[in-house]
Amino acid sequence: MKIKERHLSDTELTRFFAQLEQKNSKIDNNLRTEAMLLQQMDPTVGWSRLINNMKIFSKEQSAEVKVNGIPVKLVLNKTRTPSLKSDTFENNVNNINPERCLLCELDKGQRGILIKDKRYIALANPGITLPGDLTISSVKHKKQVITGHFHDMIEIARDLSHFSIYFNGALAGASSPHFHFQAGYKDKLIGEQQIQALLAGKSIGNAYLNNIISTHNCKLFSVENYLRPIHIVTTKNSNIMLRFCRFYMDKLLHISKNIKRYPNIYNFGEHNNSLKGKESEGRVNILLKYYPESDEYIAAFSPKRTNRPQCYFKKGKKQIILGMAIKESLGNLITCRKKDFEILKNSPDLIEEAYKDTSITRNMLLELNKSLKDFSH
Questions:
Q1: What is the residue range of 274's domain?
Q2: What is the pTM of this model?
Q3: In the Cβ-directed half-sphere of 327, how many Cα atoms lie within 13 Å?
Q4: pLDDT digits over 126-160, tens only?
Q5: Can you give the CATH number for the domain in which 368 is found?
Q6: Contacts of 325 (CB under 8 A, 6+ apart)
Q7: Quick one: pLDDT at residue 23?
Q8: Closest listed residue to residue 218, CA positions, set 235, 242, 200, 239
Q9: Total structural domains in the chain?
């Protein structure tokens, strides 16, 4: 069955619209997406894998751990096991044939809604960080690079304004070579809440906003003392956001060329079979969201050297399985093994090391901050 044939029509979603108690609301893609999530969880017509994973997710364990004064949510979540153990890009640096694409061959019962002129399909994400998580997949198989897709990301954020839109770059946490975004209900992750608090002038430990650009139509900050480097840009102008995203990736590319000869980190720019060529853009996690009430876009960029901390490469009982992707950049540290959860819960220093191992270095960050000042808007 072709991907476009997995689309759920409004007729098929009618009874789920009613469950949302929004009968008089205009049917838009927010409502369609939320109805699709209900349909996929329905025991009679839904997606069995998602239903089973939700049962597993309901038994997850979590703990808030303060790391240098910054709260991090540590989670034991076995539904994330496939993505945490995925080596899609790492395993294909040296021309190993990739496995079949799970976003080209959707699972039985897996259905979604077509958006953006039927070029993307919004699907329930079976690797659940929080209920309502989405995978927003390109209908056609394209490589997992953000270049050329920022306009789509901005429009999807506006179209699905109930959700935050996420992107994991290759070698920065992406688990599929097929181009896709992720999404989740807006401001539910602890890091998103902290970013909003910092923007509102509130305190999060010793973290603070370092002002790089501040004008009436664009603000850019680097978050300091926050375990990992994050840049935040806010604007009400979608064209400014688009130009900044492109500008940021250009500057990050220049910095990323220094990712060479680090233990267990692939040298930047090598051939990667999953990318069908050489690595061509900086390693990054991105959050983008739109607030209709204020007509404002907020984006956060987390520049990376890799997604695997050094503890991942240790042998035997010393190994801790971690992948530092967008959810981890946003403060949700996800484990799939009980022993790893218990070790990290009682060892904040290991969490700090995991962020340090995978982020760009302090010198790289200072150079990037300096170059970002040149953004013209």
A1: 3-372
A2: 0.96
A3: 27
A4: 999 999 999 999 999 999 999 999 999 999 999 99
A5: 3.30.428.70
A6: 83, 168, 172, 173, 174, 285, 307
A7: 56
A8: 235
A9: 1
Q: 243 in a domain, yes or no?
A: yes
> What is the model's pLDDT at position 134?
98
The rounded distance, in Å, linking the Cα atoms of 264 and 172 is: 14
What does residue 106 show for φ and ψ, rounded to 5 degrees? -65, 155
Q: In this structure, what DSSP letter does residue 229 have?
A: -
* CA 4/CA 10 separation, integer angstroms: 15
Planar angle of CA 301, 221, 332, nearest 5 degrees: 45
* Radius of gyration in angstroms for the set of CA atoms belonging to the chain, rounded to a whole number: 20
Which positions of the chain have pLDDT values less than 50? 95-96
Residue-level length of the chain? 377
Distance CA 66, CA 86 (A): 28
Dist. CA 117–CA 240, nearest whole Å: 23
> For residues 2-26, b (16+ Cβ closer than 10 Å) or e, as one string?
ebeebbbeeeebeebbeeeeeeeee
Is residue 231 a part of any domain in this protein?
Answer: yes
Nearest-10 crossing angle of helices 10-19, 29-41: 80
377 inside domain: no
Counting DSSP H helices and E strands in the chain, the numbers are 11, 15
Which tokens go with 320? 């801790």
214 falls within a domain: yes
* Interaxial angle between packed helices 238-256 and 362-372, expressed in degrees from 0 to 180 and rounded to the nearest 10: 140
